[in-house]
Amino acid sequence: MKIKIYSDIDKIKDVPSWGYVFPLLELLQDETSDLYQFYEFTTIETCDFIALPVTVDYLLKNNAQYAKVIFEKSDVYKKKMLVFSASDIGKTINHPNCITIRLGGFNSKFKHTTYIMPPFIDDPYILLNKKISFLSKEEKASIGFVGHSNGSFIKLIKEFLIYLKFNINRMLKKNYFDYQPFYPSSYYRYRYLKIIENNKSILSNFIYRKKYRAGITSKGDRLRTTIEFYQNVFDNPYTFCMRGTGNFSVRLYETLAMGRIPVVINTDCKFPFDELINWDNHCLIIEEENVRFIGEILNQFHAKFTDSEFVALQKANRKLWEDYFKKDSFFIRLCQELLKNK
Fold it and tell me: What is the pTM of this model?
């Protein structure tokens, strides 16, 4: 059975880049897409869902009248709406017809139907020019990390000033994102990594970057640092994963794609398809208040696997990414979930 969608596709031409476009509609611009086995365009009278063509925060800032009209239409025609929120922080729309598709947020605050969409990435094995492979279990757990982590007081002050400016702009309606408490992610990340590094029963392989993506600007440097990042994931069975500006971790999906095991710091995260996927079977999830025990928790987790189970987990994680979190795969799974909400 197909999902019938109505959307004002012409609105896509009004945005400055594809980054503002609902990715499902972007994919359906290709008339040969396999997703046409699962979705079809139709009229507003006969559709199952109205799909907002571009991200809702962009519309509220640049075309609020259209956003108002389309939500009124959803009421008139009694149709549910697929609302895409693309930013790190996201925007909650408190409307009974709204089904939100977003990158992250706080699980305890979601009151309406919300689906978490992964950041879509290219297959890292192609970038590394390597065959898919999995690591044998060693006596000690080995955990990697490459990324923005800075424990200096100056950095903490800078992050607070950025946060303050962002919220002033939000209050002045210069942006349309949810409020979230101050959370200096690079500062906390540094502190938590140091806890692991100081535990001599664990092998840690960390590359600390004082700026996001090491402050690189050129295309060549971006490629070099990306390869360095994925090589670190490749070399270690475990990778430390924690939120950034928004309350989600891109590194979680990058680790799964490499067929490795994410160690996730849970900051009230909502995981995608959490009614279908038992995430505890794929990751080590540690509540943030227990981070001081992260070394002991990781050692206990590592010890419970036989050699064959350890490799099987890595294979299962790679398959999870292929089946759920590649771009086409995600929207096929989403179709199956939406059919339940018709």
Answer: 0.93
